[in-house]
């Protein structure tokens, strides 16, 4: 259904970024002896076998106190990688031995619901490799590696292949996804924007507490109902506070659960109050939705209060000017209290959900790519014209495409946006995010079909 994700985690300075670069075969992640260099997640689409891909994720050091006061941000990125992973590579440093932060990391990983393998890194000789088994107390399978001496790579890749979904399992999961009738929709927005009123109007019952006191809903609540005979799961979430406003544990965990709701949803509905300006909270939420590549619908609520005063086009322009990278996102104008336009919104949301499951046949995909290149060739890069030899779709939810090219870096962000616009016009993906990957391929290598 989606590309298996393999996360590299561990305490600072155990060689996670070196391992990342070593596995992908090129220098991508920054490698430095200073602890805490890697803060954001670094991802790379890696082809292990023919047509067998994984998304490898490098993370910052667990437990580090960032000198620039970015500890919370680093930890958030680490947890996001763990939550998304299908397999975790838990990296330790044999040469320094077991440290307290290794124990901290191991305890944290026990809560992960995916396989974990302990990668005993810096095993530069046989003696050090034997010392890897000092870490057996953690209870994980152990693979000694040495990036500098190129030891253990084949064993680690073999372990990864054995512990991620097979092509057959991925195909079956994709079939289940496209057959799934229930759609999970997360209702996201700042406090007092009308999400609970929306739910009440939708189900025709006082299922949620509706109050003018901001922040009434403090936990995510799942509500199942039917629309046009099809099941739908609405996930109502706590209203978000700005980070500096989080002073109580209940608010902290509410935010954590809301972000988790975004990750588990098929589609997110990001609510705006028509009578209020877009705030930093909505900008942060939109960034988080985009970061997780989730389809979204912008929902402008309380529109009855502006009827006759403001045109819908004005608010639409306001949204797209504020979120220029989200121009594909549809907009709905509703009145939660009366239920106006709610059913129309949900029917459109179901259409968006179906777009995330779009599967483009390879011949049709490559024909469109060929025409797109002919109509608007990419600019020259390093004195050569970037070429795409062929493209293939490797996943859905979101639709994910790999382009094999002579110059992967020659396809800049603006050209990728052009290709995405072509795909939106030609395929049933007009309102959903897509993932594009560009990979090196020799010119003599072709593809049938």
Brief characterization of the structure:
The chain is of the alpha/beta class and 449 residues long. It has 13 helices and 15 strands.
Give the CATH superfamily of the largest domain.
Answer: P-loop containing nucleotide triphosphate hydrolases
Radius of gyration, Cα only, in angstroms?
A: 24 Å
The major pleated sheet works out as: 6 strands, mixed
CATH architecture of the largest domain: 3-Layer(aba) Sandwich
Please write the CATH class name of the largest domain: Alpha Beta
* Average pLDDT level: 83
Broad shape: globular
What features would you describe in this structure?
Helix content is 34%, strand content 21%. It is an alpha/beta fold and 449 residues long. The protein folds into three domains: 5-171, Rossmann fold, CATH 3.40.50; 180-355, P-loop containing nucleotide triphosphate hydrolases (Rossmann fold); 362-440, K homology (KH) domain (GMP Synthetase, Chain A, domain 3, 2-Layer Sandwich), CATH 3.30.300. The protein has a six-stranded mixed beta sheet with strand order 2-3-1-4-5-6, with helices on both faces. A six-stranded mixed beta sheet has the order 8-9-7-10-11-12, sandwiched between helices. Strand 10 (267-273), helix 9 and strand 11 form a beta-alpha-beta unit. The protein is globular. It starts with a strand and ends in a 9-residue tail after the last strand. Mean pLDDT is 83; it is low at 30-40, 208-218, 249-253 and 444-449.
